[in-house]
Amino acid sequence: MSGKITVLLLDDEAIVGRRLKPALEKIGCTVEVFEDPRRALARLAEQTFHIVVTDIRMDDIDGLQVLEQVKKTSPATRVIMITGYAMMALAREAMELGAFDFIAKPFTPDDLRAVVARAAESLGLAVTSSTSE
Amino acid sequence: MAIIIIAADRYQPAFEIARQTAERLNYQCFGRDLLNAAEARYKLKADQLLQAFHDYSMLGLSRRQRTRYLAYVQEQTLSALPEDRAVCCGLGAHLYVRGVSHVVKIRLVSDVKLQVEELAKEVGATPARAQKLLVRSAKRRRRLAIDQLHLDEDDPSTFDMVLNLDQIEPAEALNAICETASYRKFQPMTYSLQCLRDLVLSARVRALLIEQYPEVRVRSEHGTVVVEIAALKREKQKKAEAVKQALAGHPGINYVEVHVIRDIFRQAVESFR
């Protein structure tokens, strides 16, 4: 994994992807957005991403299952969990399963950019600077 | 890295374990000493503040005093703690960090006989009398934690780990604590750090208002502070404004919302006049 930072963004609410994709592109990430976890997992089986940003509560497959799958196939991928139902037990479980970070909604694009920048840095990559919104 | 909070029946042996844990992990260590800084601020000595937890006097503190002292200890403790890499012993700290996933809460249990002996020496009482004082103080403390913080200290699930120092040597306890704190689930994350910041801000605001509004409840989220106070209907507007005024310019606060609930006790008193 090298070059431009690749991000897979998974959230079953379309607005989240619409809002966050340009925010991450501003710092030089190449972002693919998915609303359906099955399609996201299929894409993850085809390609390795530097960073996966996933919602936790989704129908059929939840974010923790996505996290487990990503860690199985690509342990170096940094997985950032986002949720509107944050609780201590869930946060601990996500960290135990190998999440890089856990963010509670609502958050600002700047908050996510900061976490993505840290995740990229931990992989030896650097994001490009951007002006905050 | 995590924050480790140690609650114990006997402070000194627990503090020694806390100190050694901090030394081994290269963390900062905090104990009752941090209350010394509260003296100038709240005009109360550390010993007086600690009475909120360990009150062996005959009548004890009033409910209002106990609540206020607890709010001050809570504020002092949360304000002093760094966001990670710290060990804190005593001060009821385990009660203030509810929901913060990177805090490891440890309870060290020890023989009641030893506690009774220590207290008998401290207050110059017979062992039988010391035992009674100990039980009464524990009851008061438990009630306070349930009333004010909705946490039952006697419930082991309040803690991440309970160690019995009668059965486990301090060195083994030290190893167990250090190993547990290294678990990935106790590592800080954006969410848990924000939870801690919210709790610190709530504690600061509550400590600021509690003398004037003894029943005040405070909740914070990302700099938005929700304050709940009790007042008579006719005072509602005035008191809400006074709270907003008191918090104006306070660091970390972006917005204040004041909920005024009806003070039924004062209302009842006034209706009998």
In a few lines, what is going on in this structure?
The complex is a heterodimer of chains A (133) and B (273). Chain A has 133 residues and is of the alpha/beta class. Chain A is built from five helices and five strands, in the order E-H-E-H-E-H-E-H-E-H.
Can you give a write-up of this model?
The complex is a heterodimer of chains A (133) and B (273). In chain A, strands 2-1-3-4-5 form a five-stranded parallel beta sheet, with helices on both faces. The longest helix of chain A has 14 residues. Chain A is 42% helix and 20% strand. Chain A has 133 residues and is α/β, with parallel strands linked by helices. Chain A has a single domain, classed as 3-Layer(aba) Sandwich (Rossmann fold), CATH 3.40.50. Chain A contains five helices and five strands, in the order E-H-E-H-E-H-E-H-E-H. Chain B starts with a strand and ends with a helix. Chain B folds into two domains: 184 residues, Rossmann fold (3-Layer(aba) Sandwich), CATH 3.40.50.300; 61 residues, Alpha-Beta Plaits (2-Layer Sandwich). In chain B, a hairpin with a 2-residue loop joins strand 6 and strand 7. The longest helix of chain B is centred in the middle third of the chain and has 23 residues. Chain B contains ten helices and eight strands. Chains A and B meet through helix 4 and strand 5 of A and helix 8 of B.
Which structural class fits the helix and strand makeup of chain B?
alpha/beta
Q: Which percent band covers the strand fraction of chain A?
A: 15-25%
- Number of helical segments of chain B? 10
CATH names the topology of chain A as Rossmann fold
Span from first to last CA of chain A?
Answer: 29 Å
- Looking across the biggest beta sheet of chain B, what order are the strands in? 2-3-1-4-5
Helical content band of chain A: 40-55%
Oligomer: heterodimer
> What overall form of chain A do the CA principal axes indicate?
globular
The Rg value of chain B, from CA coordinates, equals 20 Å
